[in-house]
Design goal:
Elements (H helix, E strand, L loop, with lengths): L1 E5 L3 H12 L8 E5 L15 E2 L10 H19 L4 E2 L3 E4 L3 H16 L5 E3 L1 H7 L9 E4 L3 E3 L1 H15 L2 E4 L2 E5 L4 E4 L4 E9 L5 H6 L8 E8 L2 E5 L6 E4 L11 E4 L5 E4 L3 E2 L15 H15 L4 H8 L4 H10 L11 E4 L5 E8 L4 E2 L4 E5 L2 E6 L4 H16 L1
Parallel strand pairs: 1-2, 1-12, 2-9, 5-15, 12-23
Antiparallel strand pairs: 3-8, 4-8, 5-7, 6-7, 10-11, 11-12, 13-18, 13-20, 14-17, 14-19, 16-17, 20-21, 22-23
């Protein structure tokens, strides 16, 4: 019987690497399953490619513990195998008085997490990014970097394949734990020794087939749209607004990319479509539940959701990205600043909602059940944290 990993995104691939590095399982004894494609073409390759430095996460949380160490490990691995890393840093720019208050809170939080950050003035900030809008202060994170998600996923997949790891395109719908077999959507099955469930949006349903521990959780899918800069001022560093500390979304930001163009986005809007880039509504009856949850969140304004929803409301995403991009700069750049929507980068963020509290779950969530591990919440910064998160999970296997 094989040791099974469900999901061939960055977390699944990193777990396979950790199992091999720690000599827990030989490559030939590892089988990685994925519903859509191998390697995954889901959220792992549909994001802005920012290697986060751990600024925002609550001290003591899994995200705080794993993102800094994970970022170091991922950066070192990329350099070792000659994959490009753009070590360009990040500036947080305040746009109102409340932003200045939150900026100081983020600085304090980042320092508590052991991050390298500092407040800087306009002279220093404009040396990092020319023509930057003038503000009293900015938060500078020199350790924030940029990578190419697709290159990393493909290289890691190639390495595992060459070592003899097995891959199979199959959709797991539940665990028949009494018989130690996984049931596929075509009604075939696979016996297992043990498994790790890191199936992204599908992980919650698989976990619910063996426990009622997560019955209070449901998925609220958000679509992140992006635009790409076609001409205009060169973006030298990541430019971010000051995020709302109550929300797990960081706002529309500018990201310089490995290929020298810059990415603008994402927004975060609820989606109700079936089968879109790694998220599949198993049944159209899911849609009323998603609508209801959005209405309740909006009405209650839990996690400041109403303010987020109103800010994201737009019938012209391209214009929204254009306006949000230009607000970072002082000069009139409209004449030569051109963008276009980049649907290839669009991705789904499967945000977990706690229906008991109607609050969004912000930290990584996992559970060990019958010696199998279910990772039911691995949203951003999961890619940054992938090697450290994998090691943490694999240590639970031993």
């Amino acid at each position: 019987m094989k040791f099974v990993i469900i999901g061939s995104g960055i977390i699944g691939l990193s777990i396979a690497k950790a199992l091999i590095d720690k000599k827990i399982h030989k490559p030939l004894n590892i089988l990685i399953l994925d519903k859509y494609a191998i390697p995954s073409k889901g959220t792992s390759v549909h994001n802005s490619g920012v290697l986060h430095a751990g600024l925002y996460y609550k001290p003591g949380s899994m995200k705080a513990k794993l993102s800094i160490d994970g970022g170091i490990k991922l950066r070192e691995w990329c350099k070792k195998i000659n994959l490009p890393i753009l070590e360009c840093g990040k500036l947080l720019i305040p746009f109102n008085e409340n932003d200045y208050v939150n900026l100081e809170k983020i600085e304090k939080n980042a320092l508590n997490n052991g991050c390298n950050v500092e407040m800087i003035d306009h002279d220093r900030a404009s040396n990092i990014q020319p023509f930057l809008i003038k503000k009293d202060k900015y938060l500078w994170s020199p350790n924030t970097s940029v990578f190419d998600p697709k290159l990393i996923v493909e290289r890691l997949y190639k390495s595992l394949k060459e070592m003899g790891v097995n891959f199979l395109k199959k959709s797991v719908i539940l665990d028949d734990s009494d018989k130690k077999r996984l049931i596929f959507d075509d009604y075939t099955n696979l016996s297992y020794e043990n498994y790790i469930n890191c199936a992204g949006p599908g992980a919650l349903d698989i976990a619910k087939s063996v426990t009622n521990k997560f019955d209070n959780l449901t998925i609220l899918p958000f679509l992140g749209q992006y635009a790409v800069q076609k001409s205009g001022l060169e973006i030298k560093t990541n430019l971010y607004p000051v995020p709302d500390p109550e929300l797990p979304f960081l706002g529309i930001h500018l990201t310089p990319r490995i290929n020298k163009s810059s990415l603008i986005g994402p927004n975060a809007i609820p989606v109700f479509k079936k089968d879109i880039q790694g998220y599949d509504l198993k049944d159209m009856r899911d849609i009323p539940s998603i609508i209801t949850n959005n209405i309740i969140l909006f009405a209650s304004n839990k996690s400041n959701y109403r303010n987020h929803a109103l800010s994201e409301l737009s019938f012209n995403s391209k214009n929204k990205f254009y306006v949000n991009a230009l607000r970072y700069f002082s000069s009139d750049l409209k004449s030569n600043f051109q963008i276009e929507m980049d649907s290839k980068t669009y991705g789904i963020r499967a945000q977990l909602l706690n229906r008991n509290t109607y609050e969004l779950e912000n930290d990584f969530i996992y559970e060990k059940i019958n010696n199998n591990i279910h990772i039911v919440n691995a949203v951003s910064p999961a890619f940054t944290s992938c090697f450290s998160l994998a090691e943490f999970i694999v240590n639970k296997v031993i």
